[in-house]
Amino acid sequence: MPTENPDPQSLLPLPAAAFQILVALADRDRHGYSIMQDVSTRTGGQVRLSAATLYSSIRRMLEQGLVAEPRHSPDPASQDERRRYYTLTAFGRRVAMAEARRLTEMLAQARETGLIPKKL
Predict the structure, then answer these.
(1) pLDDT digits over 62-82, tens only?
(2) Cα–Cα nearest to 67, from 95, 98, 39, 103
(3) Model confidence at 120, in pLDDT bands (50, 70, 90)?
(4) For residue 87, how far is the Cα from the chain centroid?
(5) CATH architecture of 11-112
(6) Single pTM value for the model
(7) How many CB atoms lie within 10 A of CB 57?
(8) How many angstroms separate the first and last alpha carbons of the chain?
(9) Torsion of CA 88, 92, 97, 99, to 10 degrees
């Protein structure tokens, strides 16, 4: 579990799967299969999380305080008790934002050196 005022920088760089999971949870709580679908759709199928990768990442992220399991299902119509939902914590949002800034800075550096075109 993170300390009282953890520094998001202490977890950077994030594994790619962890960042994709945080992005998937940024707009709403989701269950595991929904996270996998969102990542695949958002990346045009270029990133596909296996169940093993997803759940080992979620287990680590729960321990780090990046995500949590809400007490009540955000989908009251769902009758599947096996379905576990995950929510992005305030700390998880700060870490995701820090990672997005880090990636943006890396992209800017690549543009400055001419590695990639300025207009991509």
Answers:
(1) 999 999 999 776 665 666 677
(2) 95
(3) low
(4) 10
(5) Orthogonal Bundle (1.10)
(6) 0.88
(7) 23
(8) 39
(9) -120
